[in-house]
Amino acid sequence: MPAGTGMKSLGDTMLNALAVLVIALMLCVVLQVACSFFDINPLISFENRVGFFGKGITLNSLLDLQWHLFALICLVPSGAVLIRDTHVRVDFLYDRLGPNARRGIDGVGHVVFALPFFVMALPAAWDFAMRAYRSGEGSRNGGLDDLWIIKLVLPVGLGLLAVAIVWETGRLIRGNRAT
């Protein structure tokens, strides 16, 4: 098995799983629009607290859930996108360069820009999520009870991207590139 195949396969599996969340997001939007049109709110009420839905599912719960799903869909796969080499860059200039120049630009970009960013951003993102968790942060308008979950996606997504940056930097130092 070529080096990096396992990491790429793991990334592909994660991207496929997140594609299911896109469908869940669309269903959530359709349900919210339909319930809003027919003036159905709350959708479901619970006698006891049920997970992060609290005492019921309301239109605001659906809106909060949409943001949770959107955060997962956008932040979590960033590392896999980098490993697959499908991230955004100025390709009309980059494509004109040879493989060694490309590796050099990618390596310098990772070491000079990305890694220092993660050294600063990861602790701040973790503190942001933990502060919300410790305070029991929830929606103030009948939405989801545990809004710290959406804030936890930030350090998780950044952490996965940091792992991908370190992985790719190692590949660049060894002189090969993901296929």
Compact description:
By secondary structure, the chain is mainly alpha-helical.
Q: Key features?
A:
2 strands; two-stranded antiparallel ribbon; mainly alpha; 179 residues
What value does the average pLDDT take?
86
Structural classification: mainly alpha
Q: How much of the sequence is in beta strands? A: 5-15%
Helix content: 55-70%
Order of helices and strands: HEEHHHHH
Instruction: Count structural domains.
Output: 1
Q: How would you characterize the largest beta sheet?
A: 2 strands, antiparallel
> How many distinct helices?
6
- State the low-pLDDT regions, or none: none
Task: Give the strand line-up of the largest sheet.
Answer: 1-2
Instruction: Using the CA coordinates, give the radius of gyration.
Output: 20 Å
State the end-to-end CA separation: 13 Å
Number of strands: 2
Q: Which shape, going by the Cα principal axes?
A: elongated
3D structure, described in words:
- The chain is mainly α and 179 residues long.
- It has one domain.
- It is 69% helix and 6% strand.
- It is built from 6 helices and 2 strands; from the N terminus they run αββααααα.
- A two-stranded antiparallel sheet has the order 1-2.
- β1 and β2 form a beta hairpin.
- α2 packs parallel to α6.
- The chain is elongated and about 60 Å long.
